[in-house]
Design goal:
The complex is a heterodimer of chains A (about 260) and B (about 375). Chain A is built from 9 helices and 10 strands. Chain A is of the alpha/beta class and about 260 residues long. In chain A, the strands form 3 sheets. Chain A has a 5-stranded parallel β-sheet with strand order 5-4-3-10-9. The termini of chain A are far apart. The longest helix of chain B has 18 residues. The chains are: A alpha/beta (about 260), B alpha/beta (about 375).
């Protein structure tokens, strides 16, 4: 079972709540995904409004609420909105996103590290969204983050695990959980991330803009489970040469 | 700032557009990044026959980037005083309309009405009369509104970078500043007197707003003044230039079509709904990330039809006369509205089309120093 910051999760699929056609479809998608960790953009919700459409569907007894700082351009902004959100009751969990380029929404490594250090110091359980940079992941780990969230490809692109080599290095080196975030566009992409040993994946666009988001949420849940099972079972080696499944290479000439 | 945005002569833009043939349109439609030459093709007369394919591509790009989501906002008109004479505008200085500027209290009261109607994003609008409504007024109003709204943007006279920086610090999130027309000849013809006559100063304004740190800058052209195809290409070039020079700034575009207004100005040329649709789809395919605003200038039927095809932001329940939310009988409006539905009614129409009507997609806390 996956444990992050002392909390145990049965599902290794985390869900984002953006771009859904309605709160009702979001709710059904969350249920179909089996996810227990749901991220919400603080810019999008009104924590002070009990009738807020997104907050209303998130049963805090069933799901860990992972507020994110999407929209923050630098460390100061991310820290400010994180503090205000916690004061408004959003809890200690925080998905740290510092994305100064509104076009690609790629994360700023310098500002993310600076913000993470401060927010960890203030007692947040910080899960930073980062480019797939192994050294940055280690520095964040040293800073005390609860997990690292490298991207598979730029957010919303559905291009899959383009950063595979780098993510493999992060997985090999990190002591904190590694959650592949952003760009996973198909269940097969999520399965691939899980097969190489990611502890979890976070999916949003691929589900929310699917023809049927609820069924796609279920598809991702199955893929994540399959990928994890394969990882734990131990994948056979890959090679370009054909390899017989029942080797006949005889060494019987050896006495 | 190191460089200024420059646009080619309008006739050169038209030449590039009209040179595009069917094959150029097909190439642009297939290309992941059509670029300026692709945009020219998508705006061409040849592309009209492929409008269906363009809408299909535009819709797919919009859904992937923004989801089935449309943001909603309302304009708040503060003043209809204006020192410019612009042939097309109801606020034009020579028009004999009832002039009014809201006191800060009145403006706050109007804002409270919008808040009670469910709006969380508002756009402060005024005629251009800096002595009556200048940066001091806007700064004071922003400070009063910033605790109440998720996002407050402005569409007022062009300002200096320092003034934009002051307003940003006071809680203004975004600036909309439309060139109206990128054709210098037409620009000179319709801007008869006032500061707005300075084409270059206005053209450089979006860059000043971005340089001052505004989160978002909106640019646009008023349709009905000059060749809409060339306007679209010029707008695309402006957009691309801003992207290169201000990578931190979010960008939106708007294509207001001229509406009946005081002064009885007749549009210099007609831009049909089909033309507008081609323009919107072309810009969306050209720039998948740009926000596209479709205001209540357009009729409900058209706005409903366009849901999901490219636009990402709709206004609703709008009144274009200062003080018009508290007193709906007030005159002195900028132009006549085409879609009179309330926020609830527009939200319902969006839901019918499988879109989430989003009232809050920002948080003023990002930019406020406590």
């Amino acid at each position: 079972m996956l444990t992050i910051a002392g909390h145990t999760f049965r599902s290794r699929l985390f869900l984002g709540t953006g771009k859904f056609p309605s709160a009702e479809i979001l709710q059904r998608s969350i249920e179909a995904s089996g996810s227990e960790m749901i991220t919400v953009a603080l810019r999008r919700v009104d924590l002070g409004d009990p009738a807020d459409d997104i907050m209303a569907v998130l049963d805090r007894n069933k799901y860990v609420l992972l507020p994110n700082t999407s929209g923050a351009r630098d460390a100061a902004e991310a820290i400010r909105i994180a503090r205000l959100a916690r004061a408004a009751g959003s809890g200690d969990w925080l998905k740290l996103e510092v994305t100064p380029d509104p076009r690609t929404l790629l994360p700023d490594p310098v500002e993310t590290l600076a913000a993470a250090k401060e927010l960890v110091r203030e007692g947040f359980k910080v899960l930073p969204y980062i480019n797939a940079d192994p050294i940055l992941a280690l520095k964040l780990q040293d800073a005390g983050v609860a997990a690292v969230m490298p991207l598979g490809s730029p957010i919303g692109t559905n291009m899959g695990l383009q950063t595979r080599m780098q993510v493999e290095i992060i997985i090999a080196q990190a002591q904190v959980p590694v959650v592949v975030d952003a760009g996973l566009g198909a269940p097969s992409h999520a399965a691939e991330a899980m097969e190489i040993g990611a502890d979890a994946v976070l999916v949003n666009t691929a589900i929310s803009v699917a023809g049927d988001p609820v069924r796609m949420a279920r598809a991702f849940a199955l893929a994540v489970e399959a990928g994890r099972e394969a990882y734990e079972a131990g994948l056979g080696p890959q090679g370009k040469e054909a390899a017989a499944s029942s080797p006949t290479t005889g060494l019987d000439f050896i006495k | 700032m190191s460089a200024m945005f420059e646009i080619p002569d309008f006739t050169e833009l038209q030449r590039r557009i009209n040179a595009a043939g069917d094959e150029d349109v097909r190439t642009a439609l297939k290309s992941a990044q059509p670029g300026i030459s692709g945009l020219a093709a998508l705006l061409s007369p040849a592309a009209d026959a492929m409008l269906g394919e363009m809408a299909h591509r535009s819709s797919a790009v919009t859904v992937q980037r923004f989801g089935r989501v449309t943001q909603l906002y309302a304009p708040l008109y503060l003043s209809n005083y204006c020192t410019n004479r612009c042939a097309y505008c109801g606020f034009s200085a020579e028009n004999r309309i009832n002039r009014r500027v809201l006191t800060l209290e009145e403006a706050e009261a109007e804002a409270s009405i919008l808040l009670s109607r469910g709006f969380n994003h508002i756009l402060l609008v005024s005629g251009e009369s800096p002595k009556i409504l200048g940066v001091d007024y806007l700064e004071k109003l922003a400070l009063r509104l910033r605790e109440k709204f998720a996002a407050v943007s402005i569409e007022v006279q062009p300002m200096e970078e320092e003034e934009y920086a002051r307003l940003f610090a006071a809680g203004i999130t975004a600036v909309a500043i439309y060139q109206e027309t990128y054709d210098r000849t037409t620009y000179d013809e319709v801007h008869l007197s006032g500061k707005k006559c300075d084409f270059e100063y206005r053209l450089a304004t979006p860059a000043r707003a971005a340089a001052a740190g505004m989160r978002e800058v909106g640019i646009g052209t008023l349709l009905g003044l000059a060749d809409w195809r060339a306007e679209g290409l010029a707008l695309g070039m402006h957009l691309a230039w801003l992207r290169k020079h201000f990578w931190r700034t979010g960008l939106t575009v708007s294509f207001p079509r001229l509406r009946p207004a005081a002064g009885d100005f007749e549009p210099l040329l007609t831009v049909s709904e089909r033309n507008l649709t081609q323009l919107i789809c072309a810009l969306r395919i050209f720039d998948p990330d740009v926000g596209i605003v479709l205001s209540t200038r357009e009729e409900a039927r058209y706005r409903d039809g366009m849901i999901g095809l490219g636009p990402t932001r709709y206004s609703a329940g709008s009144c274009t006369a200062p003080g018009g939310y508290a007193d709906p009988d007030l005159d002195g409006e900028q132009f006549a509205i085409g879609d009179h539905r309330s926020l609830e009614e527009v939200s319902l129409a969006l839901r019918h089309k499988g879109h989430d009507p989003v009232r809050k997609d920002w948080d003023i806390s990002f930019q406020l120093i406590p």
